[in-house]
Amino acid sequence: MNAPFKSGPSGNRDPFAAFICDESALDVLRPVIIEMGWQPEKCNKGGLRNAVQSLSISASPAILMVDLSESGDPLNDINALAEVCEPGTVVIAIGQVNDVRLYRDLLSSGIHDYLLKPLSASQLRDALTQAQAVFSAPRNTEHDGEKKHIATAVVGTRGGVGASTIATSIAWLFSTEHERSTALLDLDVHFGTGALTLDLEPGRGLTDAIENPSRIDGLFIERAMIRANDRLAIMSAEAPINSPLMTDGSAFIQLEEEFRSAFDMTVIDMPRNMLINFPHLLTDVNVVTLVTEMTLASARDTIRILSWLKSNAPTAQPMIVCNKVHQGASEISKADFEASIERKINFTIPFEQKAAINAAKLGQTFAEANRSAKSAAVMHDVANAIIGAGSDEGASLEQSSKSGTSLLGKFDLKAMLSKKKEPETAGAAQSA
Q1: Where in the chain is the domain with CATH 3.40.50.300?
Q2: What is the rounded CA–CA span in Å between residue 209 and residue 415?
Q3: Delimiting residues of CATH 3.40.50.2300 domain(s) in the chain
Q4: Distance from C-alpha of 304 to C-alpha of 115, rounded to nearest angstrom
Q5: Cβ of 177: how many Cβ atoms within 10 Å?
Q6: Under CATH, which number does the domain 16-134 receive?
Q7: Cα–Cα distance measured from residue 347 to residue 215, given in angstroms and rounded to the nearest whole number
Q8: Tell me: the pLDDT tens digits for 178-237?
Q9: How far is Cα 167 from Cα 144, in angstroms, rounded to an integer?
Q10: What are the E-state strand segments in 271-365?
C-alpha cells in the first residue's frame, strides 16, 4: 500500500485540527492544544467521517488528528480521508483497538502515528511535537547530496579470504568515522560471523524475516535489528544446521528496500552461493567489494565472478580487494594476478595475524581494535572509496591492466590450470 499522506511544507494552512468522538478525549486534548499555541476551537466533535466531510469543502490543516473509534473499516476510511487531504498533511489517528497489525497497516497507509485511548496529556504532547518536526526534516534532506543511500555487497572469492572481517570493519567505519546510519546484513544464515565479530547475539530477526516476508516493514526493522552502536545495526542469524534455507529471496529484497528508507548505508555480507542463487539482490547495489587472495584458485574465481557481474549486475561497480597478503610469500605475484584478471587490484591489505587475534579477544571489528595497524588503514581507504563511488555518479573503480585482453604472457592462468589436470586427477579437476 502506498503512503498517500506526503510530508511537505504547510504553507498558510491552519496548524492543527482534530475530529474526536467523545468529550473525555476532547477534555484532555484542549489544554495541550492551548499549550502548543493553537486554537482550542479547532478540536471538533465527531470522528473520521466528519473529518472527510469537513475537509472535502475546506483546506487541510498542517497536523490533523482523527478518531477511528466509530469507524467500522478504519483502513478504507483512511484512504477516503487521503483523497480530501492536501499534500503535506501529517495525520495522527487515535482509537481504542489495541492491535499490532492495524497499527502497521495504518503506518503503511501514511498515518504518522496511532495513539491508543484513553489519552494522556504527555502522550498527546509528544505526538504533536514529533508531528511538528516532520516539516523541517524533509526540507533539510532534500538539498543534502550526501544523503543518497549507498549499498555495497562484500563477496569473498573463496572461503576464508576475510570477506566478513572486511564487511564488519567497513560497516563500523561508515557508522563512526563517516557518521552514516548503517545496516549490516549477514546473509550467511547458518554460519555467519557478523554478530559474533561485534560481540552480539544475532537474535531471530533474519530467521523471522525469511519465514514471514509479509511481516517486513519499518516497525519490523526497528525491532528485529540488533544495535552495535548508535548508527550501526545488524541483522543476522544462526539458523540450525539441520534446517535448509527455504526462500525465494523475496525477504532479502524487502529488507534491502526497508534499509534504503531507514539507513544511509547498507553493507551486505554475501556468500558466493547467495550471489549465484539470488542475483536480483545486486539490483540496487552500488559497489561489489570482491575480496580475494593471491592464489591460483582465487585468481580463477575472481575472473569468473567479474564475468558474472558484468552479465548479471552491470550497474554495480566491482572493487577488487586483495586480503591477507604475505610479504614475498604469495602463491602468485601481484603483477601476475592483475594480468590474469585483466585489471588492477584496487586495494591490498597486508596479513597481520596478531591484529586479527587482538580483534577477536576484544570482541571488536578489525578496524576498531587495530586503529594504528597498516591493514586497518587500508580498510579506511576501502570505506572511503565505496562512499566516493556511491556518492559520485561519474566515479569509477575500474582500473584496467596494461596486459590487454589476453591471459597469455608472463602469467598464463589457463596454462597453469591445464597443468593441474594430470590424467589421474582429471575428473577431480573437471568437477572443480
Answers
A1: 150-390
A2: 46
A3: 16-134
A4: 54
A5: 12
A6: 3.40.50.2300
A7: 40
A8: 999 999 999 999 999 999 999 998 888 898 889 888 888 888 888 889 999 989 999 998
A9: 26
A10: 287-292, 317-325, 347-350
Task: Cell numbers for 73, please give them.
Answer: 473499516
The length of the chain is 432
Give the whole-angstrom CA distance, residue 41 versus residue 133: 23
Please answer whether residues 126 and 97 qualify as being in contact, where contact means their C-beta atoms are separated by less than 8 angstroms: no
Give CA–CA dist 182/168, Å, rounded.
Answer: 11
78 touches 3 (CB < 8 A): no
CB proximity list for 227: less than 8 A, separation 6 or greater: 233
Rounded to whole angstroms, what are the CA distances from 131 to 53, 54, 111, 148?
23, 21, 11, 24
Which tens digit of pLDDT belongs to each residue from 386-429? Answer: 998 877 654 566 653 333 333 333 345 555 555 444 444 333 33
Does the structural domain 150-390 have CATH classification 3.40.50.300? yes
- Between CA 193 and CA 168, with CA 397 as vertex, the angle to 5 degrees is 15
Q: pTM of the prediction?
A: 0.62
Under a CB-based contact definition with an 8 Å cutoff, are residues 201 and 224 in contact? Answer: no
Q: Which amino acid is at 426?
A: A
What are 233's three cell numbers? 545495526
